[in-house]
Design goal:
The chain is an alpha/beta fold. The protein is built from eight helices and seven strands. It has a single domain, classed as NAD(P)-binding Rossmann-like Domain (Rossmann fold). Strands 3-2-1-4-5-6-7 form a seven-stranded parallel sheet, sandwiched between helices. The longest helix is centred in the middle third of the chain and has 25 residues. It is globular. The termini are far apart.
Length: 254
């Protein structure tokens, strides 16, 4: 069992009680880490923090000054950082022909530029050794209609993960990602109004079920463990879905 006693952790994007960020924060705290959670919505963030019994700070990941201020607060409270998880995300679906540049730019700011700032500030607080964990997506390597911006930013961050792993390896800081398949959370809940979606997705998963936030949290717990000898990798936590294909748009829409 992973033991993280005396480890200091930050989880960004933990404002939903049923989300991946909250599940990861819960797992880290249960393993003994001192955890701070952050997101940009005070009301929902404070509810999650209360349920988990952890400290929270409001932060807008698209605002570099806000991110820097968050990490300054983390340093003041924790004294340093051993584990940093970025679970921030923004749903964005649009065929390229219908692209709204402003909405696309907002997604890029959250999932790409925000991710870069998160890595920079996390490493600033880490000493010799640490684990930075970034949330990717199965769609980063499996194309699907309408996901050019969403999947493109995730694919870009997978390359950033490899670059950051090289840049920070000399300090013993490991940088890895987790790529879940379709996972039911507040961010994806509206998609499940389509009765075809779940069965279409499950047909392409060798292990026969969709993943959960807790599945992702288990992977994050392993990556956070100092005994984990892995860096520059993105784990596909999706029941073997990369072995097959994504369901087509037509299959999902019926």
């Amino acid at each position: 069992m992973t033991r993280l006693t005396d480890k200091k952790a930050l989880v960004m994007g933990a404002s939903s009680p049923v989300g991946i960020g909250a599940a990861i924060a819960r797992a880290l705290a249960a393993a003994g880490a001192e955890v701070i959670i952050a997101a940009r919505t005070e009301a929902s963030l404070s509810c999650v923090a209360g349920d988990l019994g952890v400290v929270h700070h409001v932060c807008d990941i698209t605002d570099a000054d806000s991110v820097t201020a968050l990490f300054d607060q983390v340093k003041e409270r924790l004294g340093g950082l051993d584990i940093a998880v970025n679970a921030s995300g923004m749903n964005h679906f649009s065929p390229i022909g219908d692209l709204d540049i402003d909405k696309a730019r907002a997604c890029i700011e959250v999932q790409f530029l925000g991710g870069l700032t998160f890595i920079r500030e996390s490493a600033r607080l880490m000493g010799e050794g640490g684990s930075i964990i970034l949330l990717s997506s199965l769609t980063a390597t499996r194309p699907a209609v309408g996901l050019a911006v969403y999947a493109g930013t995730k694919a870009g961050m997978e390359q950033v993960t490899r670059v950051a792993a090289l840049e920070y390896a000399g300090r013993g800081i490991r940088v890895n990602g987790i790529a879940p398949g379709m996972t039911r959370t507040d961010m994806t809940e509206a998609m499940f109004a389509n009765p075809n979606l779940e069965q279409a997705v499950k047909r392409e998963i060798p292990l026969g079920r969709m993943g959960t936030a807790e599945d992702v949290a288990s992977a994050a717990l392993w990556l956070a463990d100092p005994a984990c000898f892995l860096t520059g990798e993105t784990l596909a936590v999706s029941g073997g879905a990369p072995l097959q294909r994504l369901p087509t748009y037509q299959e999902i829409m019926g």
